[in-house]
Amino acid sequence: MSFSIEGKTAIVTGAANGVGLAIARHFVNQGANVMFADMDEARLYHECGEVIEEDGNIRYFAGDLRERLTLANLLSATIDAFDRVDILVNGSRQVLRSDPLDLDDTTLEALIMQNVTNTFRLSQMVAKRMIKQAADKEEGQVGAIVNLSSIAARRTQPELLGFSVSMAALDQVTRSLAVSLAEHRIRVNSVALGSVMSASLSLSLKEHDEYRKEIEDNTPLGRIASPAELAQAVQFLASESSGFITGQIMTVDGGRTLIDPVCAPAH
Known about the structure:
It contains 8 helices and 7 strands; from the N terminus they run E-H-E-H-E-H-E-H-E-H-E-H-H-H-E. Strand 1 (9-13), helix 1 (18-29) and strand 2 (33-38) form a beta-alpha-beta unit. It is an alpha/beta fold and 267 residues long. It has one domain: NAD(P)-binding Rossmann-like Domain (Rossmann fold, 3-Layer(aba) Sandwich), CATH 3.40.50.720. It has helices at 18-29, 41-49, 68-82, 105-133, 161-181, 199-207, 210-217, 227-238, and strands at residues 9-13, 33-38, 58-62, 87-90, 143-150, 186-193, 249-252. The radius of gyration is 18 Å and the shape is globular.
């Protein structure tokens, strides 16, 4: 088996910035055909527009990924560009802080829609395409789906109640789809982010720099990971090297979930 994803076609959502962008770039560098997808067309063009070639391995798609029709159009655009899809990385996530006593239904519904419903819808569409295009393939991996989750799914952070609930639901979607799609040789896994310099964490640190020391002090490895490190974990789960792994939540957090913050080691 190999970590190689060369020649594979991947859709990466949330690819305009942060972790999603790092994953999409990494996949391109590894020789994959990549559809960068996001709602922010200006940023997508800034990242991709000037390097797209007629026969190149980069395309981008901008649209409101909360709409079912937009997701269908994203899949169609990928097939038009590359004829197939082998890997889906659901990297589009929304993080909203709120006081649990003031968390309104609209905010909670928005987080569930963005982080859970959209992921399920696109996974369902892509899985059906993977099954169709592999009708004559008798063995080997048919496809891989990798979701970006969070350690918030199993840690209690009251100010992230809505986000935590959506991530816990996403983890269960991962497990359920893994079982449902196993007979079709499509694997579904998640990577739970912790101390990774995502777009949302970067923004938080700009507004509250004191968070950096708190995170570092509560992380055994004593630092915040780069998005590139997460991209390598996602590549592993997308490649045939993880061919017997499905329905798993891989934690990439520098050991942060292993300790009680009250007893955090001094650095």
